[in-house]
Amino acid sequence: MSTHDTRNPCTKLCRYDAADRCMGCFRTRAEVRHWKRLPDETKAAINARIAARGGTVSKRDGKRAKKLDKKIHKLEAKLATLRARRSELEGSVVKAAE
């Protein structure tokens, strides 16, 4: 029997950052995808790396982060609309000045 920590660190908060790391458990997309087929030593090394980083994100914090991400997305969409309107106004002001 293995003495290594080979438990799956998944916290069910699967969202990936720009570096293709899960924001819930900090594994790469490839590590997540191939977890069941990885050797125990590799799983233990991944779990040790996660523990050294400070562990995984709790479900509560992860849910809060998801809500904030949704709000940010909505605000970014609204900001893009406002910027487009501003560009239209600037364009009409330039035309009126000519």
UniProtKB/TrEMBL annotation:
Residues 65-92 form a coiled coil. Keywords: Coiled coil, Plasmid. It comes from the Bacteria. PANTHER family: DUF1289 DOMAIN-CONTAINING PROTEIN. This is DUF1289 domain-containing protein. It comes from Azospirillum argentinense. The keyword Coiled coil applies.
